[in-house]
Design goal:
Elements: H1 2-26, H2 47-62, H3 77-98, H4 102-119, E1 125-126, E2 133-134, H5 138-159, H6 165-186, H7 196-215, H8 224-243, H9 261-269, H10 271-286, H11 299-305, H12 310-331, H13 336-362, H14 371-374
Antiparallel strand pairs: 1-2
Helix pairs in contact: 1-2, 1-7, 2-3, 2-7, 2-8, 3-4, 3-8, 4-5, 5-8, 5-10, 6-7, 6-8, 6-9, 6-12, 7-8, 8-9, 9-12, 12-13
């Protein structure tokens, strides 16, 4: 049933994105080309509307479908998340068309996050070893939830700089998240095995799959801030749901580290976006600029600067996401000592692959041969 919801989201997203392309091109709803942009011709940024359509329609179908409709029984959380998603898409579209000031955009992000925190899902547990810390204060719980959602939205927004990058990262990371949540619930002794986190990630992956063909290099449409922030909101909401299940015993089978699996996996999935966000804040603050000011210093820009092509930089980021996300997934299935050793080896190999163009250019004898040498 989850796969059916994923397919529904993909079909609707693909079709709706086609419609958004037509409207954006027909009405010439293009943002000015900025110095940091990687494209030279105007492209519509209304793709987030297609992703949102896929997400919203799939949720509505799920609410009336066998098995997954149990998630909606006496539970307003899915509708709170959908309401927050609608708010952030509206804010994102306004920013894509009008280029809002950073503080206005931040207010909009906070409003969407608060909608989710008040009417959707809420952080009630902070994972600690050996025992998780339970949050008793509603105000603290709402503030932490909103802060986490805003951070995740900005992380995904920052990584959205190359054609297909943010959508592909969301598909890979969301798939790992989906498989983990699904496996845990299918192997648990439960009367009701339906799960909101599993549904959210399934629908998110489907919506991004439907959008990606339109966004693959060279992109015919961009997801814009509306799409990137929507992905961040959904991913954060799914992570909050799974974190709240720590004390339920669902993760007790997770080989040696049961209390941190639900929070570790979302951070593994979001490692690259969060790393890019953190580096950007440090970089801009050190230069005396606002952390929200734009520049051309993101991770994907650095890959282009050392010699990667547009497509190869995107594929490399995909591979990093696979290593981190599925490495986190493996922790829920296999012994953590083995998984950590394999993950370390994989990351070492990926680090070498990532640095190879730079090392080849710098190392004597490894650079491109001159015409005289070739003769």
């Amino acid at each position: 049933m989850y796969l059916l919801m994923m397919l529904s989201a993909a079909v609707v997203s693909y079709t709706a994105t086609w419609g958004a392309r037509y409207v954006g091109n027909r009405m010439e709803l293009f943002s000015p080309i900025r110095s940091r942009d990687m494209h030279s011709t105007p492209v519509s940024r209304l793709g987030g509307l297609g992703i949102f359509a896929g997400f919203a329609v799939a949720l509505l179908i799920a609410s009336q479908s066998f098995f997954v409709k149990d998630i909606f029984r006496n539970n307003d959380a899915p509708w709170g998340i959908l309401a927050g998603a609608a708010v952030i898409v509206a804010v994102g579209v306004a920013d894509d068309l009008l280029d809002l000031r950073w503080w206005i955009k931040l207010i909009g992000q906070s409003a969407a996050a608060l909608v989710v925190a008040v009417w959707g899902v809420r952080m009630t547990i902070i994972p600690f070893i050996p025992e998780p810390y339970v949050i008793d204060s509603d105000a603290v719980s709402i503030a932490l939830t909103a802060g986490l959602i805003v951070t995740t939205m900005n992380a995904f927004n920052f990584i959205d700089g190359l054609d297909g990058l943010a959508a592909g990262v969301a598909i890979i990371g969301g798939t790992a998240f989906f498989l983990t949540a699904y496996w845990v619930h299918r192997t648990a002794i439960l009367l009701d095995r339906s799960d909101l986190a599993t549904l959210l990630t399934a629908v998110l992956v489907g919506a991004c799959i439907g959008f990606l063909p339109h966004n693959w290099f060279p992109a015919k449409i961009f997801m814009g801030d509306s799409g990137a922030m929507l992905i961040g909101l959904i991913m954060a909401s799914a992570g909050i749901v799974s974190t709240g299940q720590i004390t339920s015993g669902l993760y007790d089978r997770a080989n040696g580290i049961p209390t941190i699996i639900p929070i570790l996996l979302p951070f593994a999935v979001l490692f690259l976006p969060l790393l890019d966000l953190g580096l950007a804040v440090v970089r801009r603050t050190a230069l005396g600029r606002s952390p929200w000011s734009a520049d051309r210093g993101h991770l994907h820009h650095k890959l282009l600067d050392i010699g990667y092509s547009h497509r190869s930089a995107v594929i490399l980021m995909y591979l990093w996401t696979c290593v981190l996300a599925f490495g986190g997934l493996a922790l829920a299935v296999f012994q953590w000592q083995v998984v950590m050793a394999v993950n370390l080896a994989a990351m070492t190999v990926m680090a070498g692959v990532t640095a190879w163009p730079y090392l080849r250019h710098k190392a004597p004898g490894l650079g491109p041969r001159s015409s005289a040498e070739e003769e």
